[in-house]
Each structure stands twice: as structure tokens, then as C-alpha cells.
Amino acid sequence: MAEVIGTLLEVACLRMPWYTDLRVVFDVLGGREWDFDWLVTDLECNRLPPELRPPSDAWFFRGDALSDLVRREADPVQFVWGVLTCLHRGTVIDVEDLRVVPYADGNPDFWRGSPRIQHPQACVEIVCWDGTAVLLITTQSDLTASFRAGFPEAVDLAAFNSRQR
Fold first, then answer.
1. CA-to-CA distance for 144 and 3, rounded, in angstroms?
2. What is the largest CA-CA distance in the chain?
3. Of 126, 148, 149, 153, which is most buried by a Cβ count within 10 Å?
4. Spatial separation of the C-alpha atoms in residues 86 and 122, rounded to whole Å
């Protein structure tokens, strides 16, 4: 199994006017969101586009559809809380019967040791943390490299957690 690498972006950066602007995150990742399918859970936004409105608590998108949803809004959506779980294209998920529901709000596991991806079929998690931080947890070293190159302020999450003790 590939090593899981966690990266935290929580300090002010010029590239992103507010945290959890997924347009900027997707730009930094080079549009790779198109390569995957996405499970979106534990969502709280400044306003919800129609595709993300209740009664659902979980949504499943192809990468192109999620990219379109994030990028088409003239007034960008701020993802205050949420987990975007990246799955290999073609993965079958029943959002009505999830055995594992990735969550951010109240999840202490991000702030201990080396965080792990929550969903067993996932290869990446993008976590929107209270509108103040973005976490990238992944087995994809190229995505980690792109994220850290695009956000030089980002730090290794395991190292950050070890300093907080």
C-alpha cells in the first residue's frame, strides 16, 4: 500500500482569497479532479448550489461534474466544512447506504499523528476545515507535490501534529 501523506494549508496565502475555495485547489492540482469520481460528505457551505441541497447528506459526482459545479458559479461557493473523497473512476458507491461516512466537523483524527484517509476505497481526501484550513490527505505523491508547489505555505500534517503535543 502506498504511503499516505497529509498536507495542511492554514496560513494566509496570496493564491487563495479565503480558505476552501475549491476552484483554486483544483487549479493547483492541475485539473486532476477530472481523473476521479468523488464522494462529498459532511458539507456546510456559505450557500448551496442546487446539486448539493438536502435531503441528501452525501453526494457522488464524476470528476467533470464536480469541477463544473465548483467552477461555474459566478459567486464562488465557500466550502466551510466538508470532505471530498476521491475514488478511482468507475468505483460504485451507494450514497444511501455508506458503510463509512467521511467527516470533518468534530473529527479529532486529523490532529493526531499521521492522518489516514477515511474511506477504504479512496486515494485522496480534500478536507475543508471550518473555513480556516484545507487538508490534503493522499497516497498520490504527485498531488502532494502539486499542492505544496502551488501553496508553498502548506506544511506536512504529521510534522505539524507532532509539534502540537
1. 11
2. 42
3. 126
4. 5
Write the pLDDT tens digit of every residue in 21-70. 899 999 999 999 999 999 999 999 988 888 888 778 899 999 999 999 98
Q: How far apart are CA 122 and CA 88, in angstroms?
A: 7
Bridge partner list, 129: 133
Phi and psi, residue 131, nearest 5° = 70, 10
Q: What is the DSSP secondary structure assignment for residue 138, as one 8-state letter?
A: E
Q: What is the DSSP letter of 50?
A: G
Residue ranges of domains in the chain = 5-157
- How wide is the angle at C-alpha 95 spanned by C-alphas 62 and 3, nearest 5°? 65
| Cβ count near 76 (within 10 Å) | 17
SS3 91: coil
**Residue 104: alpha-carbon gap to chain centroid:** 10
**How far apart (Å, rounded) are the C-alpha atoms in residues 152 and 146?**
10
0.85 exceeded by the pTM? Answer: yes
Question: What's the full length of the chain, in residues?
Answer: 165
Give the whole-angstrom CA distance, residue 39 versus residue 59. Answer: 6
Distance between CA 143 and CA 137 in Å, rounded? 10
Residue type, 27: D
